[in-house]
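Input sequence (835 aa), recorded before submission:
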Amino acid sequence: MQGDRRERRSNVLRHRLLAGAALIACAPLATPVLAQAQAQPSAQTAAPAADGLTPDAVYVEAESARREGDVVTAQGGPDDRVYLRTRGHTLRGESVSYDLAAGTAAAQGQVEATAPDGTVVHASRLELDQDLNAGVAVDFATRTPDGASLMAATAVRRSETANELNYAIFTPCPICDANGPKTPSVSIQAEKVVQDEELRAILYRNAVFRIGGVPVFYTPFFAHPDPTVERASGLLVPIVNYDEGRGVSVELPYLIVVSPSEDWLISPQINTEVAPLLNLQWRRRFVNGQVVVRGGYTYERNFGDFDLNGDGDFESNVRFGDRDHRSYLLSHGEFDPDGPWRFGFTAERTSDKTLFDRYDIRDPYQDNGLYYGDRRRLISQLYAERQSERSYLSVAAFSIQSLRLDPRFADTDFRDADGFKVFEDDDTLPLVAPLIDARWEPNGPVLGGRLRLKGSAVSLYRDAYVGSPVLRPELLPTSTVGVGGVDTRRVTGQFEWRRALISPLGVRWEPFVDGRADVYSVGDLPPVLGVDPDDATLSRTRLSAGVDVSYPLIRRTAEADVILEPVAQLSVSTDPDLDPRIPNEDAQIVELDESSLFRMDRFSGYDLLEGGARFTAGGRATIRWAEGRSASLFVGRSHRFDQEDAFRTPIPDDPTRLYDPTGLASETSDWVVQGSFSPSDRIRSWGHATIDGSGDIRRAEAAVDGRWGRRNLASISYIVDRSDPLYIEDRPDPANPGGPPLGSLNRNYEFIQLAGQQFVYRNWGFTVAGIADLERDVITRSEVGLLFDDDCFRFELGFRRDNTRVRPSGPSEGVYVRLNLATFGGSGYGQSEMR
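Predicted structure, C-alpha cell format:
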C-alpha cells in the first residue's frame, strides 16, 4: 500500500510538473526594472564585448541586490523578475544568485536562461555550472530554433555532452496559441530522455506516441536525430498504399548518412500480392558537382489484366509467365568546376515498358541534364558546356527509350500475341551523336548594332524506318518491308545583325539582317527515290532583311496605369529551297506565342525554315490598378505574301491527303491570343490560344490558381489541341494487310486538371485532384482524401483511381496514405541538402 501511495504521488507530481513546464514555456517575458545593481571583479584584462561587458563582468537589474563575498544575490517578483547578464548569457528569475569566483548561478521562479547561440531554457528552478550550462532544472522546457519543444519534470546535465530528462515530452508542434497552452498534435512522452550532443541524437526509454493527446503507439526504446541535425541516418516515414495489382504496399525508406556530402537511401517496397521491389538511391556531392544514382530491382512474373485464352475476355489481376529480372536505373550527374566549362550526364533505362506504372515508382520522369526527355521517354546523355560573357558552346550525345504506346494503337486495347499492349519501337528513335550548338558575339558594336554568330551541327542514326512526319509525303514508299532507318547529318551557320533606334516621338525602330546556310548529308533513303541510298549531300541558303517597329504608350491615372504596346515587323527573305529529301527531325512542332510570332525562325528546330516576304503585327494592352492586381491581353497575326505548301504534312489517318499542323502554311497565320488576369494577390490566371482564320481554336491553354482563407487553395488548368483533322476509326494496315486493323492516329486531345484542398472544421478538411480526358470522355486519374493539417502534422487518407491508357492492366484503384511530420520529415524519399 505504501508503494502504491508513493507511485500515485509520483504520477501526480509528474503530471503537475509537465503541466507547469508547458505553462512556463508559454509565459511572456517580464520587462519592468525597479532597481539596478552591478558587481564585477577588479581585474579587467580583456576588451569589452559587444554589450560592453568584459568576460568576467556581471550585470544585474533587480528590485534589490546584495553582495556577500563572491556571491551576488538579487530578488525580484513574478512581474519584475531579476535580469542577470554575463559572458553572453542572460538569466531571468524571481530570485537569482551568482558566484563570482566559481562562475556558477542559480535561479528560482519563472526562470528563463538564454545562451549566446539563442537557445532558451525555461524552468521553475535552475542551477548552472561554471560554463553556465544547465546542471539541474525542475519543470524544464526549451524550444529549438525550428520550433520544436522539449519539456521534462527534471533535467540533469550528466556530462559535457549528455543531458538526462525524466518524465519528458518532445513535440515538433506548437504548444501555445492565442488562448494559451494547447495539446500538441503530435508528441512523444517518455519516462527518460537522453540528449546526446556528441551523437547529436535524442534517445527515449518507454516512449509513447500521442496524436492529439491520444496514445497510439508504445515502444521501449526510440531514437531520432537532434532537431539541429540537418541529416541523420535512420528510418524515414513509411509509405503505405493499396493497389489492385500489388495489394497492400508498404515502403520503408531508410537513410544512411555516410558524410555531410554523401548518403544512401534503401527503400524496399513490400507487397502482399507480388514480390518485393528494392529501391536504392546514392547521392554524393563533390566540391564542384554532384552525382545521384537511383535504381530498383525485383524478380517477379508479369501481373495485370491479360487475355490469356485469346477469347477477348481479360482475366483480372493475374500473374503469368516465368519469373524474370526486372529493374530500372535513373541517374544524373553535373559538374561545374572553376572556369567557363561545365559538364554532366544522365543514364535512364528500364527493363519493362510498364515497370514504373506497375510498382508506382515516384517521379521517374525528371528534367536533368542539358536535354530533357518528353513524358514517358527516358534519355541517356553526355554533355559539356562552355559559357562566357560573349560566347556559348555545347556538345552532347544522347539516346532515348520510349515508354509510350504505339500511336497506331493508342486509342484501342489491341495487344500482341503475349497479351501486351504494343509500345513505340525504340529502333525508330534516333541516336544523336553529336549535337553541337554555338553562339558568339563581338566585344563591341558592329555598324552601330549587335552582331551574333551561330553554329549548329548534328548527326542522327536510326535502326528502323519511320515515315511521316520525318519524311515528306511524296517520299513515302508504298511498302516499308526491308527499308532501314534514315540517317541524317547537318551543319548550319548563321549570322544576325540588329540595331535599335528611337525617334524623338518615342517610336522604336530595329532594323535587322539575317543570313543562314545549311549543308545536309542524308543516308539510307528509301530506294524508290532513285538516289544513292548511302549518301545524298544537299545544301540551302537564306538571306533575310527587315525591321521591327514598336511604340509603347503609357497613361497614368489616380485609379490605374494603362499601357499599350503596338508592334509590327516587315521582313523579306530569299527562297529557302526546302528540298523534300531533307528529313524533318526537329521542326515538327510550332508553338506560336507572343515571343515566337516575331522571330525569323518560328520552328522549334532547323529542318524547316521560312522564306519570302511577310508582315507581322500585334499589340498588348495592360492595366494595373493596385499592387499585384493587373490584366493584360495580346493579339497578333502574321501575313505571308505567298503560301508555303512545304509546311503541310500527311493526315495521320490518310497519308494521301495533306493538312497544315503549323498554322504557317497559308498566306495568313493563326491568330495568337494571350492574356493574364489577377484581380487580387490571391487569384492569378493566364491563357493562351491560337485560332485559325475560320475562328476555330487550334490549340489553347488556360489556368487559374486561387487561395482563400489561410490554407484553402485550388488550381484548375485546361489544355486542348485540335490541330489534327478528323480521323478514321479503323483502317487496314498497309504493311500487314492480313493483320488487325490500325487504330486512330488522331493526335487531338483535350484535358482538364483540378487540384485543391478545403478545410471544413478547424484543421480538418478534404483534398481532391483529377485529370479528365474530355476527348475520350474518361477520367484518367482521380484522388479524393480526408485531410488533417495544423502546420506541424499533415495526414491524408484517400482513394485514387488510375485509368491512363498506357497501363497494361486497365484501371487501377487503391487507397493512399500520406504523412508529413515537422522535424521527422514526410512520406517519400529524403531530399535534404548535402554539403
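Checked by second reader. DSSP finds two helices and 50 strands in the chain.
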